[in-house]
Amino acid sequence: VFSIDTETLDIEKVVVGTEDSFKLRRLFKKDSLLYLLSARNLYVSSNGGESWTFEDRTGLPANLVDFVIFGNYKIVSSGDAIYIKHFQEDRWNKAFSSNNPIRRFYAPDVLFVIIGDDIYFSTNGLRYSLLFKNDKNLEINDIIKYKTFVVLATNKGLYKDDGTFYFAVDKVDVSLYDI
């Protein structure tokens, strides 16, 4: 993990934890806190990444996939479940289980989740409903929302959340970035 000073553009390596096979899954900023999810742990920094502490992982499985903060909840996915913890709680609780891999969160004002190649949503982090049933055999790489417009980046181009075609890309997997 590297840190870039936005004033001087200096780049420095940041040491986070002592994991032998550290793999960054997600870097997330909420207010003045930075959260970093690896395959095994969730870390938090209150000083811009200069130092990191472990987030208590009581109740979490061994492998972690994605992380988001939604409302007053911290939410983590594993391969087959979603775990949730209120900021005031000490223990993570399983909120949702799936037979398909839970791959990605996106939370602008509603929590979107890519589960397998379908899109689910939640308004509270506890209950999930199907938004987009992928019957087109699309490989969904990412999801992004702009105002009321939700776009899915797939292996066949961009699609709206209602499943209608938006933009084609030939032989390129598309990803979206919110800058």
Describe this structure as you would to a colleague.
This protein has 179 residues and is an all-beta fold. Helices cover 0% and strands 48% of the residues. It is built from no helices and 18 strands. The strands form 5 sheets. Strands 3-4-5-6 form a 4-stranded antiparallel β-sheet, with no helix packed on it. The protein is globular and about 45 Å long. The two termini are 19 Å apart.
In brief, what are we looking at here?
The chain is an all-beta fold and 179 residues long.
Q: What are the defining features of this structure?
A:
single chain, 179 residues, mainly beta, four-stranded antiparallel β-sheet, 0% helix, globular
SSE succession: EEEEEEEEEEEEEEEEEE
Question: Could you tell me the number of beta strands?
Answer: 18
**Amount of helix:** under 10%
Question: How far from one another are the termini?
Answer: 19 Å
Oligomer: single chain
Supply the helix-strand structural class: mainly beta
The largest beta-sheet arranges its strands as 3-4-5-6
For the biggest sheet, the summary is: 4 strands, antiparallel
List the helices and strands and how they pair.
Layout: E1 2-4, E2 11-13, E3 24-30, E4 33-38, E5 42-45, E6 53-54, E7 66-70, E8 73-77, E9 81-86, E10 93-97, E11 102-106, E12 111-115, E13 118-122, E14 129-132, E15 140-146, E16 149-154, E17 157-160, E18 165-168
Antiparallel strand pairs: 1-2, 3-4, 4-5, 5-6, 7-8, 8-9, 9-10, 11-12, 12-13, 13-14, 15-16, 16-17, 17-18
